[in-house]
Structure formats: structure tokens, C-alpha cells
Amino acid sequence: MNGGSAYFVVALGCVLVVVGIVALVIAYNKAQRKPAPAPAAKGTDPFHTKDEDALRGDPRTLAPGDIVEIRGTSWAVRGSLRLTEGSWGWTEHLIDDANGDQAWLSVEEDPDLEVVLWREVPDVTAKPGAATVDVDGRRYTKDESGRAQFTSTGTTGLNETGTVKYHDYEAKDGALLSFESYGDSGKWEAARGESLVRAEFRIYPQAR
Fold first, then answer.
1. When comparing pLDDT for 37 and 100, which is higher?
2. Which helix (H) or strand (E) holds 51?
3. 138 Cβ partners below 8 Å, 6+ apart?
């Protein structure tokens, strides 16, 4: 190999080394620029989904014979009302516990799911229809009123079909009050309602 050839080989080798170093630097920089994986959210329930019905049961499908556990107390569904007013619909379920206490559980999507536990308020002297009513020292403001058709299944104490007039009120603290009159009796029944969050109740459907 003459001197010129040797020089060429050495120069070519130097170029290849430089190219290799540059390639390694570029690859390293690209690796450094890759976004780090997002850390897992702290305190996230791995079983939580948008549809909690798979875990806690679906209140929209409640029917006579089902069991509802509310704040640790088990209630049996004795009867159900399916109510409609125009294109709107909701359900109300008569429930009782082991002590014989009775209440109503309403289920409505407005558009979010609303589940309310209703207990009768006896001897209410206030009459529905006014803009505000006072009951047990709390003032309620009228929310809505109307007349709905209902279909009854199970044990509700009502006819299989009929109509109900209602006036719904709400207090500033979120407490609910409802007046209902079934058929043409002219008799109004009052009930106080508590909205339930999803974690406060669980549905145990019975085999159908």
C-alpha cells in the first residue's frame, strides 16, 4: 500500500468514527425526549367505572321482591309505580324494613340519576300550590307540579292504573318535600325526601 492509499484509509476510518458518534448522540437525544409514562392517579378506585351498576345494582330495574340496602338497613320492595307525564317517566317503590317501617324510593333520570328516599310527614296543615310552604320550621320553595298517569305492580295499596297530582318543593339546604293526591280523592299526602348518593345504597335483585 502506497502512502496515498494509507492516508485515504485512515481518513475514511476517521469519517466513519465521527458518523458513528453523531448517530449515537442523535439516538440518545431522541430517547431523552420521549415523554415519561403518566403516573397512576393517586387514590383512584381500580374498580370504579362510569357504570357503577355492575357493582351496586341498577336502581332503574327495581321491582317487587328486590332488596335494597340503604345506609346499612335492608328494605324489601313491596310494590312499584311506573309514572308517566307526557314523554317523561319515573318510578316510585314502596319499601319496608324488618321493623315494619315503610318508605318510598323514587328513581328518576333528570338527566342524571336521582334516587330519593321519601318518608311520610303526618298531620301537615300546609296546603300545596303556594310558592312557598313552611313545614316543621323549614321553608320550602315550589319546584314543579303536574299530573301523571301510573301503573301499579305488587302491593302499593293503589289501583292497577290511575292518576296522581303532585307538587314538589325544595328547601335551601336541599331537603325535599312532596305532596301527592291520587285519583279524585282530593286528599293530599306529604312526604319529606332525602337524596341518596350512589355509595349509600345497594340493590340485590331477586331471580325473576
1. 100
2. none
3. 171, 173, 175
